[in-house]
Design brief:
The protein is of the alpha/beta class. It has 13 helices and nine strands. The protein has an eight-stranded parallel β-barrel, surrounded by ten helices. Strand 1, helix 2 and strand 2 form a beta-alpha-beta unit. Helix 2 packs parallel to helix 13. The two termini are 29 Å apart.
Length: 353
């Protein structure tokens, strides 16, 4: 690999921390607990990012969601700027920016500025889903037309051209500049199906798959990505991360109960009534129907939870089974102390530095 390509790949993969078989990273949705507020949720995200930096996690991403009472991360660029300013070495990025919601030039300016402020630490993960309901998506775009996911390849090409200032001669935007443009952040493609997997492969970009809510598609999507990967100036071989719900606690019972709070939150989201993340008591006392218990059991079957040693074993098995190059842990626990404790226990299980 040429020196410049090796340097680019190092930005993506980084130096592996501790004794984990693959790098461990974090996906944060800034969850708002039932007894909490958005301000408290964002304060917890800041504390968690600082803790993860000390513990040796590799990167820290925040997601874009809109109109959801239990998620405070509606503006990734703003939150990334805050988290990067309160850390010093941790890679910070988006997991992701939902590109159909934004003009590519706006996204290029935002992440060009982030890269200028924090050189070499910014990741730009982009996805093609709206991250919200259709009415909110229309309000975001000021358009009554379709969501625009089918235009994603063209939007992505524009975004990268603005970041790299390399529109071809004669292009309508050839004289348009994204300022500042101090260097390109690492651009990732995100997905929960085969579409983005194939596009990431075609473009030779790193790929992050949403295993945590689309587990049935994980292996097919990763297979497509690896089979169709085309080397690029960014990568000479495939590099894939997967998101995984992972909760560690001091006992198996507590980890199971905490996981059920997240599962109940997912249940409410899937039936169109999203809310704040429920407490242990609320999840314990919820009157599940037979169909709801089945949904929860299916969701828990793809989540990772237990004591630190058990979580490490499950994560290692998942990395081995999928061949993932990186695991991105998400844990939408309702309480700050328990949430921070979970990430600390996982780091200790891996003897991370």
């Amino acid at each position: 690999m040429a020196n410049d390509e090796a340097e680019t790949e190092n930005v993506i993969a980084g130096t592996r921390k501790g004794r984990a078989p693959v790098p461990l990273s974090v996906l944060d949705l800034a969850p708002i607990g039932v007894d909490s507020t958005p301000t408290e949720a964002l304060r917890t995200s800041t504390k968690l990012a600082q803790l993860c930096e000390r513990l040796g996690y590799h990167r820290y991403w925040v997601a874009e969601h809109h109109g959801m009472p239990g998620i405070a991360s509606s503006s990734p660029a703003v939150l990334i700027a805050h988290l990067a300013a309160h850390t010093s070495t941790l890679r910070i990025g988006s997991g992701g920016v939902m590109l159909p919601n934004h003009a590519p030039l706006v996204a290029a300016e935002q992440f060009g500025m982030l890269e200028a402020l924090h050189p070499g630490r910014i990741d730009l993960g982009v996805g093609r889903a709206p991250g919200t309901d259709q009415a909110t998506a229309r309000a975001l775009r000021r358009s009554s037309g379709p969501a625009g996911a089918d235009d994603f390849p063209e939007q992505l090409a524009e975004l990268e051209a603005f970041l790299g200032a390399d529109f071809p001669a004669g292009h309508p935007y050839a004289d348009v500049q994204a300022v500042p443009a101090a260097g390109m952040p690492a651009v990732w493609l995100l997905g929960s199906s085969g579409f983005s997997a194939q596009l990431a492969a075609l473009l030779g970009r790193p790929f992050s798959f949403a295993h945590h809510f689309s587990a049935q598609n994980t292996m097919p999507a990763l297979a497509l990505y690896r089979e169709r990967f085309q080397p690029s100036a960014v990568l000479d071989r495939p590099y894939a991360s997967i998101g995984v719900h992972a909760i560690a606690a001091d006992t198996e019972e507590l980890a199971y109960r905490l996981s059920r709070t997240v599962g109940l939150n997912m249940l409410r989201l899937r039936r169109g009534s999203p809310g704040r993340v429920p407490s242990l008591r609320e999840a314990d006392e919820y009157p599940y129907t037979e169909a709801e218990e089945e949904f929860l059991a299916n969701w828990l079957s793809t989540a990772v939870y237990g004591t630190p040693e058990s979580v490490r074993t499950q994560l290692d098995e998942l990395a081995e089974r999928t061949g993932a190059d990186e695991l991105m842990i998400t844990a939408n626990i309702y309480a700050e102390d328990v949430r921070l404790r979970s990430f600390e226990l996982i780091a200790k299980a891996y003897e991370m530095s």
